Amino acid sequence: QVPRPRTAGRRRAGLPPPGAMDAAEKTSTSRAGPESSRMMAVLRRNPELVKAMVASGLQRSAVMVAVTLGTQNLRVMVWREHTAQYTAMLSMCSSVLAMTTSGAFGRFGDRFGRRVAACIFGLSSFLPAWALLIFGFSATGLYASSAAFVLSGLAS
Fold this sequence. Notes:
- By secondary structure, this protein is mainly alpha-helical.
- 81% of the residues lie in helices and 0% in strands.
- It has seven helices and no strands.
- Helix 4 runs antiparallel to helix 5, helix 4 crosses helix 7 (139-151) and helix 6 (127-135) runs antiparallel to helix 7 (139-151).
């Protein structure tokens, strides 16, 4: 007896044969690229990862908006014509610190648990705002907040 292909049942159900893609699927996958499709597969397998990424993004954006709106006038008052230069240097230092310590922070999360790592990440996100609350809206508060901003790159 010759085995029949399994496409008959799919055809009756209105589904394409296995391995067949319509034109829309072909163009969407060709535009997305292999890296994008692999990332989407990882996200589909790990719905908790999607939740963590969205929560982390919302938290970071809320903190950054608050710090930016709260400290921009203070930066201009203290740093005057060097405001843009110093702000860019702070962001660069924080990003370089984040890049150089991300592997170690990932291993820390693997060893002590993701919840502990997420808690440290969350607390470090609020360090600049806390520094302003502790030291006040002054030059000292600005420098403490700036140092805390750079240090928050450790847990990014």
